[in-house]
């Protein structure tokens, strides 16, 4: 039996029904396209940059004796990369300065949260450790405003981008600066030139680096983040300089033919220096050239969902500190009074423990960053990377604080100035074990995160 068709209500015409159906199809198509874009690896990324180059001659940090700048060879910046997956945002700030203490890092992160709404736990601020710039104390508000301004710029710059990752090697530019002579550790520059390569290195150097490339819709790279283990101490004159990260950026931009923000995340380099016997521009060519090669073989991050884990705890101080007068007199007699004063100054500031932050950031399934607040000896960083559950892991030091050198147990046995209790070395001798354990726990948790 054939049922009679009912006409639609008079208030809804067939044309309106067709229009509604068409609109619904378009909405479903747009939603599907958005899902497909997310599956294909798109998220929002923004870049901000504030010039922090001094306008006058300044005391250059990184030397035990005060020295003044006479020129500017490359500019200093606070740079920010903001990433958003639609659910949360992550902030990576790179800062061209020797170090940035915990209290100022906390102020800057809190200000960023106040202005942008991005939680403090999702913000990392990494110092490049350049030895050719002023300390934070040179700036009016200890760099809080420039850092915040860079992040605000980056938030306003957010636009859809894709991400890719790769690995590279830069050999022949860095080395372990500590060698063992007669059972004691010496820095190479403390020895005569003909002795500097005569003795075995105490530990390894790490020529490997990881790259994260952020690419805009037009196919141009919007930002390049890389992590390499070497002191930013390759500038050999009295100029203000961002050091080899500036040379790397110049090399990469020259090859690409356009400007791109390159963010240097300092690798575990407490005992790693540039090889000073090679020509200075080799560093930019080798590392910059390696990054260019990485850009040609990027693995896409297909599902760049963000996951963050921030951990705050108290790091114990040094056990029974003593002034190593005989050792200082042997290794660095000209600096005996400097280190005597550094010991006395630190004794007046000594605490049972110190606030410590470790932060982990996961992007997709195969890429992660884990940070610490020290000048971490290279073998510790290499061990964390080797045991990490991620294909690509950046072990980043000098981040969200500055607690000085963090030697290995072997290095404490060898001695030398990185181990001497003072303003630049005051944490427990077990700090290497604590940081490695906490870092790997964070990485494991991030790997399991949904």
SSE blueprint:
Elements (H helix, E strand, L loop, with lengths): L13 H26 L2 E10 L19 E2 L4 E8 L4 E7 L6 H15 L6 E5 L16 H13 L2 E11 L4 E3 L1 E4 L2 E4 L20 E9 L4 E8 L10 E2 L3 H13 L4 E6 L5 E3 L7 H14 L3 E2 L5 E11 L8 H7 L4 H14 L3 E11 L3 E5 L3 E2 L1 H10 L4 E5 L8 E2 L2 H6 L16 H18 L2
Parallel strand pairs: 2-12, 4-5, 11-13, 18-20, 19-21
Antiparallel strand pairs: 1-3, 1-6, 3-4, 6-10, 6-15, 7-14, 8-9, 10-11, 16-17, 17-18
Overview of the molecule:
By secondary structure, the chain is of the alpha/beta class. Helix content is 30%, strand content 27%. It has helices at 14-39, 102-116, 144-156, 244-256, 282-295, 325-331, 336-349, 378-387, 409-414, 431-448; strands spanning 42-51, 71-72, 77-84, 89-95, 123-127, 159-169, 174-176, 178-181, 184-187, 208-216, 221-228, 239-240, 261-266, 272-274, 299-300, 306-316, 353-363, 367-371, 375-376, 392-396, 405-406. The radius of gyration is 25 Å and the shape is globular.
């Amino acid at each position: 039996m054939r049922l009679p068709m009912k006409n639609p209500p008079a208030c809804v015409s067939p044309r309106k029904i067709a229009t509604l159906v068409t609109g619904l199809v378009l909405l479903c198509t747009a939603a599907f396209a958005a899902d497909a874009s997310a599956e294909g690896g798109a998220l929002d990324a923004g870049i901000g940059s504030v010039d922090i180059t001094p306008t006058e001659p300044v005391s250059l940090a990184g030397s035990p004796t005060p020295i003044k700048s006479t020129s500017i060879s490359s500019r200093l910046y606070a740079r920010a990369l903001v990433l958003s997956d639609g659910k949360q945002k992550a902030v990576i700030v790179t800062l061209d300065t020797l170090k940035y203490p915990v209290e100022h890092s906390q102020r800057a992160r809190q200000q960023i949260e106040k202005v942008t709404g991005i939680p403090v736990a999702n913000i990392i601020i990494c110092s490049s450790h350049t030895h050719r710039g002023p300390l934070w104390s040179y700036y009016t508000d200890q760099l809080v405003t420039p850092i915040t301004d860079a992040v605000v710029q980056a938030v306003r710059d957010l636009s859809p981008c894709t991400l890719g990752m790769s690995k590279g090697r830069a050999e022949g530019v860095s080395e372990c600066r500590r060698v063992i002579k007669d059972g004691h550790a010496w820095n190479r520059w403390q020895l005569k030139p003909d002795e500097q390569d005569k003795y075995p290195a105490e530990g390894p150097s790490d020529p490997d680096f990881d790259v994260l490339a952020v690419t805009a819709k037009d196919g141009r790279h919007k930002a390049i983040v890389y992590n390499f283990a070497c002191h930013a101490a390759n500038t050999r004159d009295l100029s203000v300089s961002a050091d080899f990260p500036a040379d790397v950026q110049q090399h990469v931009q020259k090859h690409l033919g356009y400007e791109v923000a390159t963010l240097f995340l300092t690798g575990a380099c407490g005992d790693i220096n540039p090889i000073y016997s090679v020509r200075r521009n080799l560093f930019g060519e080798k590392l910059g050239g390696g990054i260019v090669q990485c850009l040609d073989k990027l693995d896409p991050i297909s599902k760049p969902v963000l996951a963050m884990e921030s951990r705050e705890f108290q790091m114990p101080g040094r056990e029974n500190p003593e002034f190593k007068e005989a050792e200082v007199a042997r290794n660095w007699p000209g600096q005996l009074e400097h280190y005597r004063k550094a010991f006395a100054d630190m004794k007046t500031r000594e605490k049972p423990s110190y606030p410590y932050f470790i932060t982990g950031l996961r992007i997709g399934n195969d890429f992660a960053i884990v940070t610490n607040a020290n000048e971490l000896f290279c073998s510790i960083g290499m061990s964390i990377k080797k045991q990490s559950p991620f294909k690509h892991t950046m072990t980043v030091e000098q981040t969200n604080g500055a607690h000085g050198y963090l030697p290995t147990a072997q290095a404490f046995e060898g001695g030398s100035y990185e181990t001497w209790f003072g303003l630049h070395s005051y944490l427990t001798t077990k700090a290497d074990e604590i940081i490695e354990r906490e870092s790997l726990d964070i990485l494991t948790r991030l790997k399991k995160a949904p």
